[in-house]
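USER:
Before I trust my own judgement here, I would like a peer's view. Write it directly below this note and I will take it from there.

ASSISTANT:
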Amino acid sequence: MNQNFLPVAYYRGEYIPFKDANLSIATHALHYGTSAFGGMRGIPDPADPNRILLFRVDRHAKRLSQSARFLHYDLPAETIEDAIAGFVRQNKPKTSFYIRPFVYTSDLGVAPRLHNVEKDFFIYGLEMGDYLSGDGVACRISSWYRQEDRSLPLRGKIGGAYITSSLAKTEAVDAGFDEAILMNAQGKVCEATGMNIFIVRNGTLITPGVEQDVLEGITRDSVITIAKNMGLTVEQRAIDKSELFIADEAFLCGTAAKIAPINRIENYTLPSDRPIATKLRETLTAIVEDREPKYADWVYAIDL
C-alpha cells in the first residue's frame, strides 16, 4: 500500500526523520500487543495556510494518557499535547493528514509483563483523505465478536485488541463488503472494526451505550453533543441486530472514517434519504474547519 508518510517523526524524545525511527525485532510490544495508540485528524486552515487545525486534541491526549495507565505508564496528557504540537510544526503539512501517537513497552525481551519493563512514546503521521466513502458503505455482520471489558481494558485503545478488528475487516472485504459490524458477547450490536455505529429510527438517534463494550470514541461523543444541540433525541442503549435492518438511517463514525453512511447491511438495503446523517456530517466538517464559533474550543490551532 502506497502511503505518504510525513517526513518527521517524534521518537525517543526527539524529532528525527521518519525513515530513521526504527524498532528492534525484539521489541516487547511487537510480541505481546502491549501498546496503546491514538489517532487524530489535522488540516491546513482553509482561511489561513500558515495555521494547522487539529480536532479535539485535548480529548485525544487525555484518552491516550488514560490508555497508557493500563500499561503502567505515567504519560501526562500535557506531554502528549506538547509533542503533537511540535510534531506538526516540524512537518508543516500542506494537506489533510492523520496523526498516530503510540505508547508501548519498548524493552527487548520475551516475558509477558507490564512491571519492570521500559515504556516509550512516539508519533508519526501520514497524508489522509477519506478512509471510507462519503457516498456510503456496505457492511456485513462479522462472525467475530468484540472482546469483553472483563478480559481486556476496553476503556483504552489497546493495540492487542485490534486483532479482532483485523480479522473482521478482512472477512468482510473478502466477502465483497466494505466494513464489518461486530456484535458483543451478549449478541447486541457493538461497533465496526475501527468506528462507532449509529442508527436513526423515527427521528431518534441511537447508538450502543458504553456498557456494550464499545470504545469511548471521541467522534462518537462529538456526534452525540452535536445531535443534542440540534434538538434531536439521542438514546445510548443496546441495539438488536434486527434493528439494523429496519433503520431509517445508519452510519459509522470515527477519526479516520469521519461520518460514513451505511447503504447496505448484509442483503438489506437501507433508505438512500438520510437527512440526519447528512446534517451531522456537514456540521462536523464545518467544526473541523473552524467555521462553527459555538464549537471553537474543539479546534486547536497551531501557527507554523
